[in-house]
């Protein structure tokens, strides 16, 4: 007999049962579901909606159900459709008909929404913490590489030399925005839907604020129809995750390039690479490739969720059950990527010499040649033209700019003096970009210092929010 079976005269078709059930995937919400129920039943008792002693029996029963599930001794069945009814059924089996009072004044619609809010808020705190670990790994490498020069690229063409620390700090900054997006989303996740009932509220004089307090929510939804049908918080999470994956994926692409013989700029640790079954010499950056690849499914989850929502009339629709797998999958994917990235970056060997060599064998100081002329009074456009011709001359004569004699320089402009060699030195080229946010060593050191205190703040946030949402109802 289904928990909702009263109105039916026939059994559910087996295929329908399979098709409409969500227990296969929503069973991972069992802890959130029972926690929410414990708060709900405590409120029912406190408000005198059900007798206190019965509320206590139900609470005790719920805890036993939790212990059973925890021990792996519970069996979830498709016949009971979803986590909510599986848990309720287990409760009924344990405590008898009094267990049927648990669902007073609530619906699966506000219940499932509550579960999702409880689930996501703790995952968001966890993911911010994992993001910090990656940022710290980037920071550690940056600190180690404030003297490491490599070509900075645009169009994947060598453009201007930069510090490797500067390059890494760009990724630090991306991840900082990602962490901030997640932290900001927490405000909208940490709102309680329970008490909305199926869609319109409930006739019982419940105390939603009390439930919110027990479950450590910062507030309650102020419109019951919105409460049960809002999935914005999931879209936001998927969107923030997609962007974070985009950033990780870009870094992956750099690792893959840098690991190639063509670049040979870094070597990822053996522990984070794999080999080939046929080519003995291979050491592949599989983790980086896979994170890059998994970015696709995270985007897909975002598109999926947005598409599910479009065109849904208020309030709850069964379509919304489709909010779960994509969210679970995204949490797991991001969790995996971030967990691997921190140690992979920390253990990465930087081939400083090869990076430096690459800088010596390019024209990435050409802008500085032009700037030199500008400093001597030549309009930039004209200087650009002069340097362009110099570079062409070098290419035709198989030289780099620093190989030119002063006589050769003077062929292109009488403004060139002996100090041109110092101006073209890569270290000087880098340090000349001493502007806020530039690649000069002093500026990069400022970035690193600022980042260090920024991370302290994020860690405080994790600490505060982590303990704030700790509930001991179970
Ligand atoms: N399994 C459902 C879901 O995940 C729970 C809510 C069901 N509500 C309903 N009225 N059928 O969305």
What does this structure look like?
The protein is mainly α and 474 residues long. It has 3 domains: 5-104, Fumarase/aspartase (N-terminal domain) (Fumarase C, Chain B, domain 1, Orthogonal Bundle); 109-208 and 215-357, Fumarase C, Chain A, domain 2; 363-424, Ribonucleotide Reductase Protein R1, domain 1. The protein is 62% helix and 4% strand. It is built from 19 helices and 6 strands. It has helices at residues 14-20, 23-26, 30-46, 52-70, 83-95, 108-144, 164-189, 208-214, 224-229, 232-259, 286-309, 324-346, 352-360, 366-375, 380-396, 406-412, 420-424, 426-431, 441-468, and strands spanning 149-154, 157-163, 191-192, 219-220, 266-267, 349-350. The strands form 3 sheets. The protein has a two-stranded antiparallel sheet. Helix 3 packs antiparallel against helix 4, helix 3 packs across helix 8 (208-214) and helix 10 packs antiparallel against helix 11 (286-309). The longest helix has 37 residues, at 108-144. It is elongated and about 100 Å long. The mean pLDDT is 97. Bound molecules: arginine. Residues 22, 26, 82, 108-109, 112, 316, 318, 320-321 line the site of arginine.
């Amino acid at each position: 007999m289904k928990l909702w079976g009263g109105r039916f005269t026939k059994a559910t078709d087996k295929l329908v049962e399979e098709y409409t059930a969500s227990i296969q995937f929503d069973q991972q919400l069992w802890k959130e579901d029972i926690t929410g129920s414990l708060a709900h039943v405590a409120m029912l008792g406190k408000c005198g909606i059900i007798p206190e002693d019965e509320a206590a029996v139900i609470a005790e029963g719920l805890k036993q159900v939790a212990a059973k599930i925890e021990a792996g001794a519970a069996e979830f069945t498709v016949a009971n459709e979803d986590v909510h009814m599986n848990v309720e059924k287990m409760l009924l089996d344990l405590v008898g008909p009094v267990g049927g009072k648990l669902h007073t004044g609530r619906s699966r619609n506000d219940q499932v929404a509550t579960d999702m809010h409880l689930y996501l808020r703790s995952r968001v705190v966890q993911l911010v913490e994992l993001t910090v670990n990656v940022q710290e790994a980037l920071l550690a490498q940056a600190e180690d590489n404030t003297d490491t020069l490599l070509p900075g690229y645009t169009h994947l063409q060598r453009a201007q030399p930069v510090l490797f620390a500067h390059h890494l700090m760009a990724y630090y900054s991306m991840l900082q925005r990602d962490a901030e997006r997640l932290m900001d989303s927490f405000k909208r996740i940490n709102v309680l839907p329970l008490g909305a009932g199926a869609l319109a509220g409930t006739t019982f004089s419940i105390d939603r604020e009390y439930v919110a307090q027990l479950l450590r929510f910062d507030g309650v939804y102020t419109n019951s129809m919105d409460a049960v049908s809002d999935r914005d918080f999931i879209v936001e999470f998927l969107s923030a995750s997609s962007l974070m994956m985009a950033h990780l994926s870009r870094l992956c692409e750099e690792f893959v390039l840098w690991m190639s013989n063509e670049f040979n700029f870094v070597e990822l640790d053996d522990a984070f690479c794999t080999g080939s079954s046929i080519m003995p010499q291979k050491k592949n950056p599989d983790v980086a490739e896979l994170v890059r690849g998994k970015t696709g499914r995270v985007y897909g989850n975002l598109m999926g969720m947005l598409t599910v929502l479009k065109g849904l009339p208020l309030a709850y629709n069964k379509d919304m059950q489709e909010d779960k797998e994509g969210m679970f999958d995204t949490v797991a994917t991001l969790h995996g990527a971030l967990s691997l990235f921190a140690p992979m970056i920390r253990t990465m060997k930087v081939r400083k010499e090869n990076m430096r060599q690459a800088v010596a064998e390019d024209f990435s100081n050409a802008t500085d040649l032009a700037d030199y002329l500008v400093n001597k009074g030549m309009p930039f456009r004209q200087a650009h033209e002069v340097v362009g011709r110099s570079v062409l001359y070098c290419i035709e004569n198989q030289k780099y700019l620093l190989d030119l004699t002063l006589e050769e320089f003077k062929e292109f402009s009488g403004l060139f003096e002996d100090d041109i060699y110092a101006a073209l030195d890569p270290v000087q080229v880098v340090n000349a970009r001493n502007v806020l946010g530039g690649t000069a060593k002093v500026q990069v050191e400022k970035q690193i210092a600022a980042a260090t205190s920024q991370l302290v703040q994020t860690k405080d946030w994790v600490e505060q929010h982590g303990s704030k949402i700790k509930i001991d109802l179970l």
